[in-house]
């Protein structure tokens, strides 16, 4: 019986410690940071994103259609060293309501996104990121959170030397 009570006590302590640890990652004293809101947003985006992954052929076809923008959210330096033809650059770190409105203009515009992890080369300017941190994910979530709901993401892994990719260097 004593070991049962010990096990229950340890479980309660572990649960309390987990709750305290989670609170450390979810501060409520900064009104300008909302981790719980971000978690909710990522949950909302998950199913939408799964339905918006497109092949290179569809990506290129869609890019030629009116009211479509290819957005490269990599750094300005990486963009300058190479990007998909026709892409506009707005680094992810520069996303704000104002910068997105200036670059994308219409919140209903179709936005095509890609990033380093869409390329098999793993060479400058598209060195692979850790898969769980691929910029595609943050870019999609942020665009959606800023009200841009017509976002599509390149799903294929391609070689930027393949002419079908239409890679250009500035």
Structure description:
The structure is a single chain. This protein is α/β, with parallel strands linked by helices and 170 residues long. The chain has a single domain, classed as Oxidized Rhodanese, domain 1. Helices cover 44% and strands 13% of the residues. The chain has a 5-stranded parallel beta sheet. Strands 3-7 form a two-stranded antiparallel ribbon. Strand 5, helix 6 and strand 6 form a beta-alpha-beta unit. Helix 2 packs across helix 6 (135-145). The chain is globular and about 50 Å long. 18% of the residues are buried. The model is unreliable at 6-17 (pLDDT under 50).
Summary tags:
Oxidized Rhodanese, domain 1; five-stranded parallel β-sheet; 6 helices; single chain; 170 residues; alpha/beta
CATH class: Alpha Beta
Query: What profile does the largest beta sheet have?
Result: 5 strands, parallel
Helix and strand element order: HHEHEHEEHEHEE
The strand order across the widest sheet is 1-6-5-2-4
* Beginning-to-end CA distance, first to last residue: 74 Å
Gross geometry: globular
Helical stretch count?
Answer: 6
Low-confidence stretches: 6-17
Extended strand count: 7
CATH architecture: 3-Layer(aba) Sandwich
Strand content: 5-15%
Overall SS class: alpha/beta
Topology:
Blueprint: H1 2-25, H2 35-51, E1 53-54, H3 56-63, E2 68-72, H4 76-81, E3 83-84, E4 88-89, H5 97-104, E5 110-114, H6 135-145, E6 151-154, E7 167-168
Parallel strand pairs: 1-6, 2-4, 2-5, 5-6
Antiparallel strand pairs: 3-7
Structure at a glance:
With 170 residues, the protein is an alpha/beta fold. The protein contains six helices and seven strands, in the order H-H-E-H-E-H-E-E-H-E-H-E-E.
